[in-house]
Amino acid sequence: MNIERIIKEKQGTIVDVRTTEEFNSGNAEGSINIPLQEIQQRINELKGMKHPLILCCASGGRSRQATLFLVQNGFECCNAGSWLDVNYYQSKPL
Fold this sequence. Notes:
Blueprint: H1 3-8, E1 13-16, H2 20-24, E2 32-33, H3 43-47, E3 53-57, H4 61-72, E4 77-82, H5 83-91
Parallel strand pairs: 1-2, 1-3, 3-4
């Protein structure tokens, strides 16, 4: 899965798993905030989103946890690491 291409071509949904406060202080364009601690309770909402899900957070740790959980539950998703990396991919020409 080419994360950079998926992000650049808007082939999936960017889900930021940081806290709401962190998300509100800065986020990737078009991303949706679902804090890591809410992932399990909001699984039906995630099912209705455009896949693959591109998960990000501050450094990649929480998005890694979310990715592992979602893959175990049948989701097509990937860990994009930091939301700043997602911003970089969005601004970088193909």
